[in-house]
Amino acid sequence: MVASQSFVRHSPLDGSVLASVEFTSPENAPEILQVARQAFASWSQTTIESRGRILRKAAALLEERAETLAEIVRHETGKTISACLGEISGAVEMGYLVASHGRHPSGYTLPSAIPHRHIRVERIPVGVALLIVTYNAPIPNYAWKTFPALMAGNTAILKPSPTTPHSAQKFVEILWEAGIPQDALQLVLGDGDIASALIDGGADLVSFTGSYSTGQKVVQASALTLAKTVIELGGSNPLIVCADANLEKAAETAVDSAFSNAGQRCSSASRIVVEDSVYETFRDLFVEKASLLTWGANSDANVSTLIDSQSVVAFEEYLGAAEKAGATVHRLGISGGQPPPEACLAQPALVEGLDVESEIATAEFFGPATRFFSFSTDDEAVSLANDSEYGLTAAVWSSDIARAERMVSRIEAGVISINGPTHGAEINMPFGGVKHSGNGSRDAGVYAIDQYSDVHVVSTFFGV
Ligand code: NAD
Question: Is 453 domain-assigned?
Fold first, then answer.
């Protein structure tokens, strides 16, 4: 292997140095792909039931090591410990869900027009799966892709965000310990250059979670090699509040949807669309509930740090641009403790008065802010909700379920809730978006294994 470059990650919590790691040189891509291809020959021939047994063990080990893992994730991402533990338990559940496919019905048979012909359609692995993920929920991000990719019989190369190398190392070590061969699951650390080299080098399947702009590059590069793609991108998710909604509950949920995980969710409620007759009442309720938020590096703060100080700069630049465009920016919450030396904290904000036609009204900013808009008719609410290039998640709050369902049927988003948050996908729900939020693929849920499989059709002529 070509010598790699070492990289030091500082914790967003306190600026402390987390152990230095080696980034993989892009020149090593052909060798990494070769190792994965060789391992595919044997891994793909194991039974799905035996792969399920290994993944069940991996899920059990993740559960057993949850506290240690949560500490690693906390130091790497600045999240609260309860958020880290909650995410790990989601990853564990994903492991068990996927492992259970070892005993599920798989494939089907087809009737034939020809006598004595038996046709069966079977699921087969795709080959070498390159799994490129972001940092916002590291362990679930690894689990959502790695478990189904391996279960379907592919070999996998996991490429985490450069900001979360340690959680990825721990996750992969646990899977190796459970029995996944090291060549069947490789870890590469680094940024876009190693990911690009592995795509260009001919990974058979590329599964990507990240921003729209990088997603476009991934799809373009994959088009040249004709790799299968699974693409999960950003969002600018609307939460609609009708005058007949339970406003107290809607405000509580809107605060959580906008600010939990410091707004670093693809499914954050970054646009709150409120019926004009209750606009002020609802905004005041929202501000009241948000004023209880503690933002800080303390483990009990409910708005954690951003991933790094550059993200805080980008977030503040977004708010500055909103003000320049004529918006009013209200800062919310009570600061908890000293800001960390790395200055990775961002104070929650509410933005009002943006021109709905402006790009800044619908851009994704990935931080603890949300924008308020008002509507007077349901048509206007739906049009505001859809007036974004993204289409990931949405929520509608109304006590008139028929009214909410009518709106939902016209909202352009992949995951929508009525009287619920914009986030909160469960592991058995297919997750993904439309428009610039994805390319029609879905992670997790009932499609999980299908995304990482191909099919082949076998005909047996038994009259010969
Ligand atoms: P990003 O696009 O900058 O990076 C994502 C991953 O792609 C990283 O591992 C990065 O190293 C890698 N990468 C960078 N350049 C690449 C290239 N040219 N080719 C291949 N890979 C490359 O995204 P980010 O800032 O890490 O994450 C935030 C984004 O992720 C937001 O837009 C958010 O909405 C989105 N996201 C989406 C989902 C979803 O399921 N839809 C979930 C979480 C986050």
Answer: yes
Which residues have C-beta atoms less than 6 Å from ligand 1?
Answer: 132-136, 159, 161-162, 191-192, 195-196, 209-211, 214, 217-218, 232-235, 266, 364, 366, 392
Residue of 266, 275, 344, 412 marked active site: 266
Report the C-alpha gap between 279 and 269 in whole angstroms.
Answer: 17
What is the 3-state composition of the chain as percent helix, strand, coil, each rounded to the nearest 5?
Answer: 40, 25, 35
pTM of the model: 0.97
232 is catalytic: yes
- Domain, as residue range, for 108: 3-233+438-461
431 inside domain: no
266 is catalytic: yes
* Chain segment 245-269, per-residue pLDDT in tens: 999 999 999 999 999 999 999 999 9
Q: Is 329 helix (H, G, I), strand (E, B) or coil?
A: strand
Indicate whether 1 pLDDT > 80. no
Same domain? For 377 and 398 the reply is yes
pLDDT score recorded for residue 86: 95
Lowest mean pLDDT among 248-257, 337-346, 396-405: 337-346
Please provide the distance, in angstroms rounded to a whole number, between the alpha carbons at the two ends of the chain: 54
**Three-class SS state of 194:** helix
Q: How many domains does the chain have?
A: 2
The best mutation among 87, 194, 214, 427 to test binding of ligand 1, ranked by most ligand atoms within 8 Å of the C-beta, falls on 214
